[in-house]
Amino acid sequence: MSKRWYQENKRDPWRRDAKSKGYRARSAYKLKQIQEKFGIIRKGDCVLDIGCHPGGWTQVAVEEVGESGKVIGVDLLVTSPVEGAIVLVGDITHDSTIEEITREIAGGQLNCVISDISPRLTGRYDTDQAISLELSTMALDVASDLLVPGGGFVTKVFQGAGIEGLVEAAKLRFSSVGRFSPTASRSASSETYLVCQRKLPEPKKEGSAMQHVEDHLASIGIVVEEDIDQEIDPIVGFRKLPKKE
Ligand SMILES: C[S@@+](CC[C@H](N)C(=O)[O-])C[C@H]1O[C@@H](n2cnc3c(N)ncnc32)[C@H](O)[C@@H]1O
Prior knowledge:
By secondary structure, the protein is an alpha/beta fold.
């Protein structure tokens, strides 16, 4: 056991607890705290977990839905099987992944979408935050398209430019939208969770959440362009540029 591992474990009670209770990631406690406060997952629900690797949230979702429920997890990375869940490998930005998820829902209703989606961090906050915003917005569009009216949605977002656009887009689709920062998030973390309850039968305004967020970014002077050469080539991500005069 390395000295560093020992020190981190000693300092981080969530990590220690997750290990002792058999959760694959300390992040399981973030979903537990969201669930405790908002009761977003109900017994018997069908739940989609976007960005599920290594499977901590999927494990918690399986516990919450019980035997009559269903949990579908999806990630770019291969997730080892989670008992009681279906885990898929796929990119949530691809139509083929959405088709696979829809096949797994198998004509039933999707009641809840949970998303702890996060980009591979580059260490440059602006870049990471922009990519995270785009991924979370994508998750909102998926939730909007697949959820049953009345369904719930949770997504991680990094604090920063454009987040208000995402909150607005969520408010057009859900009757209740709030932000929540679980104490299980690391204290230095800039992440927060958007908790959206009771999906409306129809959005209050036409157009995708992505379009709404792009329009919001433009309104605060951030131009989103598609094809720009840059050193980092994220799979997705808003590219922020100063507004051209
Ligand atoms: C913080 S981890 C999730 C941890 C998980 N909630 C748990 O408790 O074990 C974020 C995940 O989002 C996934 N991800 C990022 N972009 C994605 C995409 N486009 N489609 C699917 N998953 C993606 C990453 O591969 C990563 O595993």
